[in-house]
Amino acid sequence: MRKVMIVDDEALVRIGLQSIIDWESRGYRIGGVFKNGEEAVRAAAEEKFDIVLTDIRMPGMDGFALIRELKRLDPSLRFIILSSYSDFEYTRQAIQAGVNDYISKYEMEPEELLRVLDALSVNGERSGVPETAGEAGSLDDERAAWLTRTKEDRDARLSEHCPALLERLGRWGGEARWVVLMPLPRTSDYSQTERKAMALQTEEIFSRLDGLEYFGEQDGLLHGACALREGEQDDSIRLRQIAEELTAAWAKNLNVALVAGAGNSVTFDRLGQSRKDAERAAQMCFYDGAGIYLAEHVVLREMAEQERLELYRQAKNKIDFLHFEQLGDEIRRRIGDPAARLLPAEWQRVGEMIATHLMNLMIERYESDPESLRDRFGAAWPLNEAFRKLGTQAEFVGMLQEMLARAQEAASSLHASRGWVAKAKAFVESRYGEPLRLEDAAEHVSFSPSHFSQRFRQETGEAFSDYLTRIRIREAIRLYNETELSTEEIAARVGYLNANYFIKVFKRMTGQTVKQFKSRS
């Protein structure tokens, strides 16, 4: 497998080159990525490379000086120039200096890059591994295995499982912190391309700073270790400097805010425990946003069972009595108390509990159907899933406020709706024997006739005239069953002055004539 070195002072170019193709599947391995010639020369003095992709115009040691120095170290190296539109004269000089090919770094296509790479003849087709046979592969395997093992077993011992990694970390001292990095959570998740660029940027910075070891990505977090240098009593200043460099790189090149969590400094065999501390520390971004958080300064707790039950009881009580504003105030007070901060997962559970109670209220008390609830709550629907997407305290409080406000609006609307409908129906029940009109019922509930007609149909599913007819025929049936009154008398009692018209309506509503009904009764 050919080993490739990338040298360019532009971070976006370095990231783009690493992600433009699947290098290993095509027979190449990126052995080092450097932002200047000095770094590249130091790396080439320690390990062998096959191909160098380099810019020409760079601060400090330019591409020509780099090529000369690398050729002195290894005459068999092959060079590809990364040129820009204004580099034609430089490119001509580079070819005269023995460069094998060039490619435009701003119009580069994966197929073109592979064509140029594959066309190079590498002496002996060296595998490109460092002098210590198998060291790079062994380290990569151990890093991946260490990530998996410490996820499942926080007490795993580095000395028992990863000797090469232990030896590498041991160059700086005997203790280290686990470090996790992640982008500041947002409602819309980051794309795979964005996450890959974050990983490449992080790996590059870790590779060129002393005391740092990059492990890899797992479950959306980037993992590494920061070794405590021998004789160093306090590494917090150095950690913050590293975090500042990463923050600046992510912000400039990726437009992403960085969150870093650092576990406690421990011996290498206790790094798994430091991982747990680092992951917990990073969760402080829920409250305080982007930044670096050291485990020794972080206090996040789980909610005690009794505390959880009491909060659930209070929340349900306030929802049942429609005290939505009071509930919102209480949750904001609790979540805003810096002396009693809970793990974000606890607030997710609280949010889901409140959402569940709200849905039960809407469905059971107000008989709302899912479609109407979706219209009322918009993006917050389904309510019990809304809090799973939130990554910060501000987002949580914002979603809670919106949800409770919409619940208040829905409850008020539905309550008012049910109130005037009940009032209109009671009016019909007391006046059905009179020459009752839609206008009379509308005036009784202070609606215009057209608005009343439309709203009555929406809320009850039937027209007012159909409802009035149904009540009148229901009463007529009762009178036929319970009295000896004539059809003319019953028609008059239920609001029909014309007995013949009453007989027609009776048949339409019951499917039988008055005579048939009376004979069967």
UniProtKB/TrEMBL annotation:
Residues 3-120 form the Response regulatory domain. One of its GO terms (molecular function) is sequence-specific DNA binding. InterPro entries: CheY-like_superfamily (IPR011006), Homeodomain-like_sf (IPR009057), HTH_AraC (IPR018060), Sig_transdc_resp-reg_receiver (IPR001789). Keywords: DNA-binding, Phosphoprotein, Transcription, Transcription regulation. The modification 4-aspartylphosphate is found at residue 55. This is YesN/AraC family two-component response regulator. It comes from the Bacteria.
